[in-house]
Model the fold of this input.
Amino acid sequence: MSGGSLGIRSGSYGSLEKQFQNGLSPIQTGRKPSKMLKEKERLFHWICKFAGRKKVGMLFLCVISAAVFVWVLYVGKGEDTQAGNGVQNINVNESISISDSPPSLISAAKIAGFATNLVLPLSPTSYFLGYTLPPGHPCNSFTLPPPPADKKRTGPRPCPVCYLPVDEAIGLMPKFPSPSPVLTNLTFTYEENLSRDGEFGGSDFGGYPTLRQRNDSFDIRESMNVHCGFVRGTKPGRNTGFDMDEDDLLYMEQCRGIVVASAVFGNFDEINEPKNISEYSKQTVCFLMFVDEVTEKYLRSSGRLGASKKIGLWRIIVARNLPYTDARRSGKIPKLLLHRIAPNARYSIWLDGKLELVVDPYQILERFLWRNNATFAISKHYRRFDVFVEAEANKAAAKYDNASIDFQIEFYKNEGLTPYTEAKLPLISDVPEGCVIIREHVPISNLFTCLWFNEVDRFTSRDQISFSTVRDKFLSRVDFHFHMFLDCERRNFVVQKYHRDVLERLAAPVIVAHVPPPPPPSSPPPPLPILETTQEKIAIPIARKGPGRRGRDRRAGSKRHRKVVAGNRDIEAN
Done:
């Protein structure tokens, strides 16, 4: 560190150095030496005569050192009463830099003749280590009430959540990042020429990491380089696939606090505008909505999107040259790789396109991250706990082709995947409801979502199937601060809407067929002719009784009926 970086003016000392270089003494002047100076010179020669030059040099050095020490104490005492000296600034790599060093120390070093590139010891790096609410706070004793006894509604529903007021949540935002266990430096693979040696799944966007590279990426070390999408370019979003405009890339680089992100591809969902957002969040939070060109065309033709690129709080960011034909797989890019798209953000909240945010972002982060001292939070599935059950449900709903799902499950079984049981507690589920992800952008959580994305890129796009494998590999190696909360809590801060096709069906008018009324009755028909009913004209036939075999026929019929009934019993028994 140079004197200039410490804010020390050194121009006057530069002139002295030039004088020495020219062979001149710094005390040479054009005046004649005075009588007092001559007496001092005689005293100096007298001391040298009796003490010797070496001892005189040591004596002068001690005197100068004592003078400097006393002067430093005097100046330092005065500076103790001043505030603001030695302010520390935290830079991106979590180190502490010195922006203002005490001038007394530097000046003393100058007087003593030491070099000005003084290096001061740095304070240890500071981290956020969590907090506890004060005793008696209502949230400390908050418990979930039992679900309402409504037999008509048995599906998922929201439950109460104890949020702090917005102002309190804002005040509790950590000033320092959370610690990243083991991993401190994370970089990402860039391949100008893609290597497909030992190919086992992958894509041109995410690369083709071998199985050995995959296994090595779970060996968490202090410094790592991994595949994490965007492998064909040095800057994500610029000729890498999932390309974005330069002004959008610059806008996202300036997001240095909280990011709320969502995406709609294939015009599959409506744009749901957030509600109940504080004015402070409107000014400090970046709301990013990623869309493809199909969705952009619809938004512009419907008049919702103009030149401002804004719909309410959302900044609409158009992604072009999508690397996948499957819109759901393309949606995993901003969902899991948001730290690459908004590289300076500290926290992010991901919402699927069908969700509407109804709680302030600071309250959500305080409740699910900061209060739990977590760097990653996700909700569990409201009904399923086991990956094997989740795979069968995906197959039954035709979410992906069955052969690919079976291959992925079999691969994970060979790696040790087992059904979920209570033995895995305190992990409450192996299946997340992945439509919401809350996380802090520190190296360890960034690595987690990178490797989760690599599984989605290598196998099926159903991220619920691959989640538990990545999580368990992490937890077996590092103390990953992971928090899984209840699905009913998630439903408290987001409202789930219908997809566009369902909304259009619900909004379609009901067509009622118009049936014309029956025609009016015509004139009454003419009366029928009257029949003669005299006894002479009427002949009533007399029914003759048959032979006396009625009882025998009835008995035979009853026997046949009993046989048929017996036969039916035999059939039902089989």
User: Anything to note?
Assistant: The longest strand covers residues 432-440. Confidence is low (pLDDT under 50) at residues 1-38, 75-123, 531-574. The radius of gyration is 42 Å. The chain is about 35% helix and 10% strand.
